[in-house]
Amino acid sequence: MSGTADRLWTVAFRMGWRGTRLLPEAAAYRLFDGLALLAHTRGGRDAQRLRANYALVRPDLDPTGLDRLVRAGLRSYLRYWCDAFRLPDRSPADLAGMVRCVGDAPVRAELAAGHGQVLFLGHLGNWDTAGAWATCHLTPVTTVAERLRPDELYAEFLAFRERLGMTILPLTGSSGTFQTLVRTLRDGGFVPLLADRDLTETGVEVDFCGHRARMAAGPAALALATGAVLRPVSVHYERRPDRAPGPSACRIVITFGERVSDPGSGSRGERVAAMTQQCADVLGGAVREHTQDWHMMQRVFVAADR
Prior knowledge:
Blueprint: H1 2-22, H2 25-42, H3 45-57, H4 63-86, H5 92-97, E1 99-102, H6 105-112, E2 117-121, H7 127-137, E3 142-145, H8 151-163, E4 167-170, H9 177-186, E5 190-194, E6 204-208, E7 211-215, H10 218-226, E8 229-239, E9 250-256, H11 268-289
Parallel strand pairs: 1-9, 2-5, 2-8, 3-4
Antiparallel strand pairs: 6-7, 8-9
Helix pairs in contact: 2-4, 3-4, 9-10, 10-11
């Protein structure tokens, strides 16, 4: 049954991917917006986990306000998928219109000087669009992707991101991923990593939005190992001023934070923890401000695991 379900899911994914690209833009986004509203009505497992995470991040909301936020979060999440399905057809000019950058001048200067960059990202906005834009308009991206089941679906995602110009390394199943990232950074490369959820069981416990959470130690560890710059980066949606209101009238805003400082004292683990906490502080502010664009449908808070 598991193998049959995997094959059916892969076929459904391919059909959705191709079908979404054949639809007119406005129709495609309306369809995905409708799917988001249906998911909100059904209140399935993903919607419930999103609600639980949002409730911890935004304790100021009453039940009605929280429900509205969850609905907005699901609409943002389905917008992400519609964006992602249509990305292979976007030209560099399209991508330029889909992105607004804040704080990128120091990043460009450091890259021009040959200084590698490690970016600490959360599951905010649309990180695939951000990666495609960066590869076209900033510098080639090298990153790490979680292995998905089934393997055939993981291969589809891998090929999709590589067609956008990104270099993708597996999170698990390869012993050379960390060493490849080290070489990339020492050569002045650009390595954005999704780090607001620990997938390795070797992460760092931090304070995040007033609660304990586990985040990936990789970005800080890479920065210490290579001397590369470490920066927190947030991504959120905003309305495009050149479009009429509607589900398709959005672009992403990529905000590059200040470089994270190495405390310079303590053990390597203590330095990694301190640098990861600095990133979590910046990310927490972005999540509180743009909660509906935080697509976190898994456990991230320590209290939720108990």
